[in-house]
Design brief:
Number of domains of chain A: 1
Order of helices and strands of chain A: HHHHHHHHHHHHHHHHHHHH
Oligomer: heterodimer
InterPro entries (chain B): Gaa1
Pfam families (chain B): Gaa1
Keywords (chain B): Membrane, Transmembrane, Transmembrane helix
Protein name (chain B): Glycosylphosphatidylinositol anchor attachment 1 protein
GO cellular component, one term (chain B): GPI-anchor transamidase complex
Strand content of chain B: 5-15%
Number of strands of chain A: 0
Radius of gyration of chain B: 32 Å
Number of helices of chain A: 20
Helix content of chain B: 55-70%
Shape of chain A: globular
Strand order of the largest sheet of chain B: 2-3-5-4-6-8-7
Helix content of chain A: over 70%
Shape of chain B: elongated
Distance between the termini of chain B: 44 Å
Low-confidence stretches of chain A: none
Distance between the termini of chain A: 33 Å
Strand content of chain A: under 5%
Mean pLDDT of chain A: 86
CATH class of the largest domain in chain B: Alpha Beta
Mean pLDDT of chain B: 77
Chain lengths: 452, 680
C-alpha cells in the first residue's frame, strides 16, 4: 500500500486538475447536490461584487458565508480567463486545499496507528489483532478522500466546502498531535465557516486530554488485575499504568486560551472587513441565523427543505427548535459511550452533522467518508458494507435522474427527489449505526481477548 | 472467567435480519416465483387496463357548440384553389389578409449530433443556429399569430401543419387548408383567452428538424441587429423588386407566450377500403415521454365513437406502444415539443373518400375543423398547466390506459429477487467461514491468533467491485467510440462495426493489463455474481425511471441471463440440471450480446441471412439511436453490455479457489511426510 500511495495520490490530483481545466461545461456548480446556498461560489462572487459597490455583501439574501472568505476568494472570482470555466483560480485553490486535507488525514492516520500499536503492545495483543488486518489506515483514509467521487465533484464544482472540510481536518490533526494552537485555529475557523463543527469541541478536548484513540480503560484494568495475579516484573506494571492515561489539563487549558484569542481575532477581522458596509450583527444574522432558521427551501439532498416547505407557519418555530436540538441531543450519550476513542467520536459527530444539517451537500459526506477510512482496521468486520457501497452508488446516480424528472421533464414532482433524499439519509444512518456498533464490538473483542 | 461465554452469547438478530436470512436461504424458489409472477402479470396487463377519464374539470370538452361551419370549410376550399407556386409567401399573404400577425422562420437542417447525456442537461442550453446569407439549403416556416382578445398574451396554443415545400402532395394541401380555416375562425373568435400560433412547417428536411429549430429559436430568442437578408427562394422571383420595408418587418421573429399545449395535424394517405374516416393519435416523444393523459382524453372524447377492443388488439397496441417508447425515438415532430415540456399530440386523419369527391372532402374538412376547434376550445379553458392527469401510462386503446401504479407491478416483481439473490451470494461466501469462527470463539482455544484468521471477509467483495469498476470504465470508453468512428470519412457500416469491435477488444485487453486480469486477484465467482446482480438492479432501477419501457424489455432479457449464470467449471450438481443450466447459460449469453440479438431478430424476420449487411445494420441502428439522443443507447452500453461481460466472466470463471486449497493441503501433507521421513 505504501509503495503505491504516491502514484495514486498524484493521479487523483491530476484527475482533478484535468476536470478543472477541461471540464468547463459540466455545470456542476448548478447541481443542488454539490453547492448549497452557504457554499456556492457564485453567491460569493455576488457578495464580493456588492461589497465592491459599497453595499453590504449580505443584502439581498444572496450571500451567507463568512466575510473572511469574501476577502480571500472574492478577488479571484473577478478575473475570468476565456475558454475556461468561470472560477478557475478558485478551483485550482480548492485542488490544493483538497490535497492538503488528504495529507493531514494521512498524518492523522499515522498518529492514530502509532497510538494503536502502542496500546496494543501494552496489553500484549499486537500479534493477535495485527495478524489479520493491518493496513496503513492513514494511507487508506487519504486515498478514500482523494478518490471519493463526491470529493472530486465538490472540488471541481465551485463551492467552498473543501475549505470547510480542511478546517475540520486541521482541527482533528492538531488535536491528535496535541498542538493546541493548531487545533484551536481549525476549530475556530470551522465553526466560523459553517457553525455545526461547534459540537466537535467534545472530541477535541477529549483528544487533548486523553490522547488519541485507545481500547477502553476497562481492558487495561483487566489486564492489570490478571497481570498482578501472575508474577510480572514491576517494570511491566508501570508501563501498563502509563497506558491508562489520566486527563491532562494543561493542553486543554492551552487550547481554551488559544480559542479565545483566535475567536477574538476572527471577529475583529470580520468587523474590519465589514466596516462601513454592515456590522457583525448583520453577519451573525445572515450566516448563523440563516443556517439555524432554514430560510432557503430550495431542494437539496437533505430532508429539512421538504419538511419546512410543508409545515404550517405557526409550528415552524417549534420544529426549528426540535430539528436543531436533534443534533445536540446526541452529543452527550455518544461522548459518554465513546470517550476512549475521541477521534472516532469526531467521525460520528461529523456524520451526524452531515445527516441533520440544514443545507447538506456531497462535500460533507466526502469528509466523513474520508474520516471513516481512519478506522479501517477496527471496522474490518463491519456488516452490510457490500450493500452500503452499492447503496451509495445507487443513490448518487438516482439523485440527478430524479431531479431531472422533476425540474426538466415535468413528469415527476418534488416527492420523487425527496424520496432520494430519504433513501440517502437512511443509508447514512445505517452506515453510522453499523460503524458505531462494530466499533463497540471491536472493543468487546479486545476485552475478551485480554480476559481469556 | 466463567461468565465470559454468557456475555459472549450472540444476541438474537433483529426480525428484519432474520427475515432477510430466511429469504436468502430460499433464494432460488423465491426468484423463480417472482420472475414467473412478473411475466404473468405482464401478460395480464392489457386486461387490467382501466377506462380513461378526464381529471381536469376546467377542460369541459364539447361544452360549447362548435362554431366551425360549412362556410369555414368553403374558405378552406378557396384557400386550396388559390394556392400559388411559392407556398410560404401565399400562406403569409392569406394570414395577413385575416388581420393576424405573420412572420417567417428560416432554418438550416442540423447536422448529426452526438448527445448521449442530453437527458441530464437542460434542453435550453444549446443555442439556435442562425442561417447566414450564403446558405442556399434552408427551409422556411411560416408562422401566424392571433392575439387573444381576452388574454394577457402570456399563454399560447400551437397548431402545426406540416407540408413539404419541394413537392406538395394533395393531402398536405388539405391539411394546410384545414389549418388555415381553423386559424381564420380563431382569428374571429371572441372567446379566445390564449394566443394561437399556427405554424406551417416546411418539412423538406423532415418535420422534426423544422419544428425543433423553430422551438429552439422560440425559447432562446436571439435579437439580431440587422434584418435577415431577403432571398429569392422565399418570395419568388417576381417579388424581389418589391418595396423592402414592409417585407423586413415580416422577417422579424415574433413570439407569443409560453406554450400550454400543441396540436399537430396532418392528413394521411387516403384509405380506399375503410368504411369510415379515422384519426390516429401519436404521442410517444423521446425516451418514452408522454404528454399528459388529459390532452389525449380531450381528443378522444371529441373524436371517437368506437368501442373497446378485445384482448388481442389491446396487446398489440400495448406492444406497439412499449416498443416505440423503448426505442426512445419520438414517433413524430411532437417529440420536439415534449423536449420543452409542452403537452402535445399528433393527429393523423385518414380520410376514406376519393380525392376528386368535393362533397366528401368538404364534409371531412368540416369534421376535422370541428375537432380541432373543440380541442383548442378545451385547452383555452385551462387555467393551469396540464397537471391533473397521468404523465406515466401506457395506452392499450384510446379509451383504455394502464397507469404507472399498474405497470410497475410486473417490473417490480422481476426486480424483487435481485437483492435477495445478491444477498444470498454476497453472504454465501461468508457463511462458509462462520461455523469455523463460532467454533473457535466458543471453544476459546489457547491459540487466540486463530480467531481472526477467518475474519476480514466482510471486505472481500472489494476485489469484485474493482472488477466491476474496470468493466464500467471499459463500457464508458466503448460507448464513446462510435462518435470518433463516425468521423472517419467514407466508412461503410460494416467497416465501422468492425473497427468498433476491434477497438473495444483492444481497450478491454489494455485495461486488463493495466488493472490486472479479473481472475488474477482470486475473486470468488459468487462475489462476482453478487456484484453483477447488484449493479444490474441499480442500472435497471435507474432506467425504469428514465424510460420505463426500455427497462421492462431489458429486464426480460438481462434478469434471466444473470440469474442463471454459473461457472461452466463449477461442480456439485447432477448431470441433468447441470447440462440444462449450461445450455441455458450459453443461449442467454448469445442472446444477451446486443449485435447478436439484432442479427438473430433480423434473420428471423427476413428469413434470408446475408451476414455482412445484417452486421452493418447493427451499426445503422446504433447510429439512429444516438442521433435521436435516445437514452436507450446509454442503457445498452452502460448497463446491458457490462452485465453481459460480467456474465461471461462468471461463466468462464476458473473456480480455482477450492482446488488450490486442496493443493496446498496436499503439499502440507507431503511436507509432513518428508519431515517425518527425515526424522527417521
Amino acid at each position: 500500500m505504501a509503495i503505491r500511495y504516491w502514484p495514486m495520490a498524484a493521479a487523483a490530483v491530476g484527475f482533478r486538475l484535468v476536470l478543472v481545466l477541461f471540464g468547463g461545461d459540466l455545470h456542476l456548480a448548478s447541481r443542488p447536490e454539490v453547492s448549497t446556498p452557504l457554499t456556492s461560489l457564485r453567491r460569493l462572487a455576488e457578495g464580493y461584487w456588492l461589497k465592491q459597490a459599497s453595499v453590504s455583501p449580505y443584502s439581498g439574501s444572496m450571500y451567507h458565508g463568512s466575510p473572511l472568505l469574501l476577502s480571500v476568494l472574492g478577488p479571484l472570482t473577478n478575473s475570468r480567463p476565456d475558454g475556461h470555466h468561470a472560477h478557475i483560480y478558485c478551483s485550482l485553490i480548492f485542488v490544493a486545499v483538497d490535497f492538503l486535507a488528504a495529507m493531514l488525514i494521512r498524518a492523522t492516520g499515522h498518529k492514530l496507528q502509532m497510538a494503536r500499536n502502542r496500546s496494543l503492545k501494552s496489553i500484549d495483543l499486537t500479534k493477535a489483532v495485527n495478524d489479520t488486518v493491518n493496513v496503513s489506515a492513514g494511507d487508506v483514509a487519504s486515498l478514500i478522500y482523494l478518490w471519493n467521487p463526491w470529493a472530486i465533484v465538490t472540488c471541481v464544482g465551485s463551492c467552498t466546502s473543501p475549505i470547510e472540510n480542511l478546517m475540520v481536518v486541521i482541527m482533528i490533526y492538531g488535536a491528535c498531535s496535541r498542538l493546541a494552537p493548531l487545533a484551536a485555529f481549525g476549530y475556530v475557523m470551522a465553526t466560523h465557516l459553517s457553525l455545526y463543527p461547534v459540537i466537535l469541541i467534545v472530541p477535541v478536548i477529549l483528544l487533548l486530554g486523553y490522547g488519541p484513540d485507545a481500547p477502553p480503560p476497562k481492558v487495561f484494568l483487566i489486564k492489570g488485575s490478571s497481570a498482578s495475579k501472575s508474577d510480572v516484573s514491576d517494570n511491566d506494571k508501570t508501563t501498563r499504568q502509563r497506558a491508562v492515561q489520566q486527563f491532562s489539563w494543561k493542553p486543554v487549558l492551552h487550547f481554551i486560551f488559544w480559542l479565545f484569542i483566535l475567536s477574538c481575532h476572527v471577529l475583529l477581522l470580520s468587523s474590519v472587513i465589514l466596516k462601513k458596509v454592515g456590522g457583525l450583527h448583520e453577519m451573525f444574522e445572515k450566516t448563523y441565523g440563516f443556517i439555524l432558521t432554514v430560510k432557503d427551501l430550495s431542494p437539496n439532498i437533505g430532508v429539512l427543505w421538504y419538511f419546512f416547505a410543508e409545515v404550517f407557519d405557526f409550528f415552524r418555530n417549534f420544529f426549528l427548535i426540535v430539528f436543531n436540538m436533534n443534533i445536540i441531543f446526541m452529543v452527550l450519550p455518544l461522548a459518554i459511550r465513546l470517550k476512549h476513542r475521541p477521534c472516532f467520536l469526531a467521525f460520528v459527530y461529523t456524520a451526524i452533522v452531515a445527516i441533520l444539517k440544514s443545507y447538506p451537500s456531497a462535500g460533507d459526506s466526502a469528509l466523513y467518508l474520508g474520516l471513516l477510512g481512519l478506522f479501517v482496521n477496527e471496522l474490518a468486520e463491519m456488516q452490510f458494507t457490500f450493500f452500503l457501497f452499492f447503496g451509495y452508488i445507487g443513490v448518487s446516480l438516482l439523485s440527478p435522474v430524479m431531479h431531472n424528472l422533476w425540474i426538466w421533464r415535468g413528469t415527476g414532482n418534488a416527492n420523487f427527489y425527496f424520496a432520494t433524499g430519504l433513501a440517502y439519509t437512511c443509508l447514512q444512518t445505517v452506515l453510522l449505526v453499523e460503524s458505531v456498533s462494530s466499533m463497540i464490538k471491536h472493543d468487546r473483542k479486545l476485552r475478551l481477548l485480554v480476559s481469556s | 472467567m466463567k461468565s465470559v461465554p454468557k456475555q459472549e452469547a450472540q444476541p438474537k438478530p433483529r426480525l428484519i435480519v432474520r427475515l432477510g436470512v430466511f429469504l436468502a436461504s430460499h433464494h432460488i424458489l423465491f426468484s423463480v416465483l417472482c420472475c414467473s409472477a412478473g411475466i404473468i402479470t405482464l401478460l395480464l396487463l392489457p386486461s387490467l387496463a382501466k377506462n380513461t377519464y378526464l381529471s381536469e374539470n376546467a377542460l369541459i370538452p364539447g361544452f360549447a357548440n362548435p362554431l366551425f361551419s360549412t362556410e369555414d370549410a368553403i374558405e378552406a376550399n378557396r384557400f386550396m384553389k388559390g394556392i400559388e407556386a411559392v407556398l410560404a409567401n401565399f400562406i403569409a399573404q392569406q394570414i395577413e389578409a385575416l388581420g393576424a400577425e405573420v412572420c417567417y422562420h428560416k432554418f438550416i437542417p442540423r447536422s448529426k449530433n452526438f448527445h448521449p447525456l442530453k437527458f441530464f442537461t437542460s434542453m435550453t442550453n444549446d443555442m439556435a443556429i442562425q442561417p447566414n446569407g450564403t446558405d442556399t439549403n434552408f427551409g422556411i416556416n411560416t408562422i401566424g399569430i392571433v392575439r387573444a382578445p381576452r388574454g394577457d398574451g402570456k399563454e399560447t396554443i400551437v397548431l402545426v401543419s406540416p407540408y413539404n415545400s419541394q413537392s406538395v402532395q394533395s393531402n398536405e394541401l388539405l391539411s394546410l387548408a384545414l389549418g388555415f380555416s381553423v386559424f381564420s375562425l380563431l382569428s374571429r373568435a371572441a372567446w379566445l383567452s390564449k394566443d394561437v400560433v399556427w405554424l406551417s412547417v416546411d418539412s423538406q428536411f423532415g418535420e422534426y428538424v423544422a419544428v425543433s429549430a423553430w422551438l429552439n429559436l422560440y425559447h432562446n430568442l436571439v435579437f439580431l441587429s440587422q434584418s435577415v437578408i431577403l432571398h429569392t427562394k422565399m418570395y419568388g422571383a417576381n417579388h424581389i423588386n418589391d418595396g423592402n420595408s414592409e417585407k423586413t418587418e415580416v422577417m422579424a421573429f415574433k413570439c407569443a407566450g409560453t406554450m400550454v399545449a400543441a396540436l399537430i395535424f396532418k392528413v394521411g394517405e387516403t384509405r380506399r377500403y375503410g368504411d369510415r374516416d379515422s384519426v390516429m393519435m401519436y404521442a410517444e416523444a423521446s425516451n418514452g415521454q408522454m404528454p399528459n393523459l388529459d390532452l389525449l382524453n380531450v381528443v378522444h372524447y371529441l373524436a371517437v365513437h368506437r368501442q373497446v377492443p378485445d384482448y388481442v388488439e389491446g396487446t398489440a397496441n400495448l406492444a406497439n406502444s412499449i416498443y416505440s417508447q423503448a426505442l426512445g425515438v419520438p414517433t413524430g415532430s411532437h417529440g420536439a415539443f415534449c423536449d420543452y415540456q409542452v403537452d402535445v399530440v399528433s393527429l393523423e386523419f385518414s380520410p376514406t373518400f376519393h380525392v376528386r369527391n368535393d362533397n366528401a372532402k368538404s364534409l371531412f374538412r368540416l369534421r376535422g375543423g370541428m375537432l380541432i376547434e373543440g380541442v383548442v376550445r378545451s385547452v383555452n379553458n385551462l387555467l393551469e398547466k396540464f397537471h391533473q392527469s397521468f404523465f406515466l401510462y401506457f395506452l392499450t386503446a384510446p379509451s383504455k390506459f394502464i397507469s404507472v401504479g399498474m405497470y410497475m407491478i410486473p417490473f417490480a416483481l422481476l426486480l424483487a429477487p435481485l437483492p435477495i439473490v445478491a444477498a444470498a451470494f454476497a453472504g454465501g461466501s461468508k457463511s462458509m467461514e462462520k461455523p469455523v469462527d463460532k467454533l473457535i470463539e466458543h471453544s476459546k482455544a489457547d491459540d487466540i491468533a486463530d480467531i481472526p484468521q477467518s475474519k476480514g471477509g466482510s471486505c472481500k467483495w472489494l476485489q469484485a467491485a474493482k472488477v466491476l469498476l474496470v468493466i464500467q470504465l471499459w463500457a464508458v470508453l466503448v460507448s464513446l467510440l462510435p462518435y470518433y468512428i463516425t468521423q472517419i470519412p467514407d466508412a461503410t457500416p460494416m467497416q465501422s462495426t468492425l473497427i468498433w469491435v476491434v477497438l473495444s477488444i483492444v481497450i478491454l485487453i489494455a485495461l486488463s493489463v493495466l488493472f490486472g486480469s479479473p481472475y488474477s486477484a482470486g475473486v470468488e465467482w459468487k462475489l462476482l455474481k453478487a456484484t453483477l446482480i447488484t449493479s444490474m438492479s441499480i442500472g435497471l432501477g435507474l432506467m425504469s425511471i428514465i424510460n420505463f419501457a426500455t427497462a421492462q424489455l431489458g429486464a426480460l432479457i438481462v434478469i434471466p441471463m444473470c440469474l442463471f449464470s454459473r461457472p461452466l467449471k463449477a461442480s456439485g450438481m447432477n448431470f441433468l440440471p447441470r447440462s440444462v443450466l449450461l445450455a441455458s447459460n450459453i443461449v442467454f449469453a448469445v442472446l444477451g450480446f446486443p449485435p447478436a440479438a439484432v442479427l438473430i431478430m433480423k434473420g428471423m424476420s427476413k428469413g434470408s441471412c446475408s451476414w455482412t449487411t445484417d452486421f452493418g445494420d447493427f451499426w445503422i441502428w446504433m447510429e439512429f439511436l444516438w442521433e435521436w439522443s435516445s437514452e436507450t443507447y446509454l442503457y445498452l452500453y452502460l448497463v446491458h453490455l457490462p452485465c453481459w461481460l460480467l456474465c461471461i466472466l462468471v461463466l468462464l470463471h476458473p473456480c480455482r479457489q477450492l482446488e488450490s486449497k486442496i493443493k496446498e493441503d496436499w503439499l502440507f501433507g507431503l511436507g509432513g511426510i518428508f519431515f517425518s521421513v527425515g526424522k527417521f
